[in-house]
C-alpha cells in the first residue's frame, strides 16, 4: 500500500471515528508498518491525531492479523 493510499483510507476512518473505524485504522497501520516502517506509522498517527481519536499512540508496533504475537505491541511501555 502506498502512503498516499494509506492517507486516503485513514482520512475516511478518522472522519467517522467509531470502534469499527479504530479497528480499520489499526489494519491500515499494520500494512504501513510492514511496508514502510515505524517512522511512517508514527507520522500518520500524528498527522491524523489518531491518539486522540482512537487511542493509537506513536511507538506502537502494529501487526497484521495472523502474524505471531498480539495485534499491536506498545514498545514504549
Q: Roughly what is the average pLDDT, rounded to an integer?
A: 89
Binned strand content: 5-15%
Low-pLDDT runs of 5+ residues are: none
Whole-number radius of gyration?
A: 11 Å
Overall helicity: 55-70%
- Terminal residue distance: 29 Å
Q: Tally the beta strands.
A: 2
Order of helices and strands: HHHHEE
Query: What's the number of helices?
Result: 4
Structural class: mainly alpha
Number of domains: 1
> Which sheet architecture does the biggest sheet show?
2 strands, antiparallel
Strand order of the largest sheet: 1-2
- Can you tell me the overall shape? globular
General description of the model:
This protein is mainly alpha-helical and 77 residues long. The chain has one domain. Helix content is 61%, strand content 8%. The chain is built from four helices and two strands; from the N terminus they run H-H-H-H-E-E. The protein has helices at residues 3-16, 19-36, 38-47, 50-54; strands at residues 60-62, 72-74. It has a two-stranded antiparallel ribbon. Helix 2 runs antiparallel to helix 3 (38-47). It starts with a helix and ends with a strand. The model has no long low-confidence stretch (mean pLDDT 89).
Amino acid at each position: 500500500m502506498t502512503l498516499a493510499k494509506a492517507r486516503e483510507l485513514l482520512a475516511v476512518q478518522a472522519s467517522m471515528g467509531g470502534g469499527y473505524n479504530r479497528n480499520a485504522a489499526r489494519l491500515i497501520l499494520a500494512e504501513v508498518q510492514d511496508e514502510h516502517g515505524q517512522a511512517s506509522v508514527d507520522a500518520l498517527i500524528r498527522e491524523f491525531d489518531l491518539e486522540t481519536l482512537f487511542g493509537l499512540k506513536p511507538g506502537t508496533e502494529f501487526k497484521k492479523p495472523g502474524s505471531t504475537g498480539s495485534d499491536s505491541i506498545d514498545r514504549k511501555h
